[in-house]
Design a protein that fits this description.
globular; methyltransferase activity; Rossmann fold; methyltransferase; seven-stranded mixed β-sheet; about 280 residues
Length: about 280
């Protein structure tokens, strides 16, 4: 059987250039405006706070627009991703933006050997955890990357959102896919992507896993971190449901068109490693 990493890497390699060329990632804005931040990081700012002077690593950084944004906020950033093509775009975008960011190719679970330890900040953005089969191993990796007193910051799509039937035509919000982590991942074969593009892709099969919110928090606690914040949000930074079920509310955020308070769209989790 093909390894899930090979399938997923081929999928991301195939889409990296199209993502960088799409209006959603606004690469031209990074080149034109030295103060420009990605919409994802701008959403994070009220909870993220001042990160100037921190040494940070961005796990699963993709094409690096959020990594560059964190560097523009004054952090010394390293971006890590397993996709060579994504990192090619990330390095190009950082150069266009005039940002001093280091990008390293590695699987998340090998991050410590790839980029070392002692970080003040581990940052993970939206749409990352679903590519990982074992949330406890992820949390242990985060804990190993952080120095004592260091901080985890993650905003992610809510596991309730991930478990919905995405393509319903009757307007109902229905749970269809696993909420909890399963041994075998969900196999998808989808030709498109989440940005506007006319590109046709060759590698469309992926393997993904959901992780319940309790599983994520428990994994973080078992890794020795102390949870300092958990906020749930009524928006998410992509059009997660099809057939007109979501409304664009601006600033890159979407929410359920009908009674959005019914659905936790995303969450922000923060935790710290105990000081020595």
């Amino acid at each position: 059987m093909t390894d899930y990493r090979e399938l997923n890497r081929a999928n991301w390699d195939d889409r990296a250039a199209a993502h960088a060329a799409s209006p959603g990632y606004a690469v031209d804005r990074f080149a034109a405006d030295p103060a420009y931040l990605s919409e994802v990081v701008r959403f994070d700012l009220p909870l993220l706070g001042d990160i100037a002077g921190l040494r940070g690593v961005h796990l699963q950084c993709h094409i690096g627009t959020d990594t560059v944004s964190l560097a523009r906020l004054g952090a010394t950033m390293t971006g890590l991703d397993f996709s060579d093509k994504s990192l090619e775009q990330a390095r190009r975008i950082a150069a266009l933006a005039g940002a001093d960011v280091t990008f390293v190719r590695s699987d998340v679970y090998d991050a410590v050997s790839a980029v070392g330890e002692g970080y003040d900040l581990v940052y993970t953005g939206v749409g990352a955890l679903c590519w990982l089969p074992d949330i406890r191993r992820w949390a242990a990796t985060v804990a190993a990357l952080l120095k004592p007193g260091g901080r985890l910051f993650i905003r992610e799509g809510h596991p309730v959102l991930w478990s919905l039937d995405y393509d319903r035509r009757d307007g109902l919000v229905a749970l269809e896919h696993p909420y909890f982590e399963t041994v075998e991942g969900q196999v998808w074969d989808e030709a498109g992507t989440y940005v506007e593009t006319d590109v046709e892709f060759a590698h469309n099969k992926t393997v993904e896993w959901n992780h319940g919110l309790g599983e994520i928090v428990t994994a973080v606690l078992e890794a020795g971190l102390t949870v300092t914040g958990l906020a749930e949000h009524t928006s998410v930074p992509w059009e997660a449901l099809e057939n007109g079920q979501m409304t664009d509310i601006g600033h890159g955020e979407f929410q359920l068109a009908d009674r959005p308070d019914r659905l936790p769209h995303s969450y922000t989790l923060q935790a710290v490693k105990a000081p020595v």
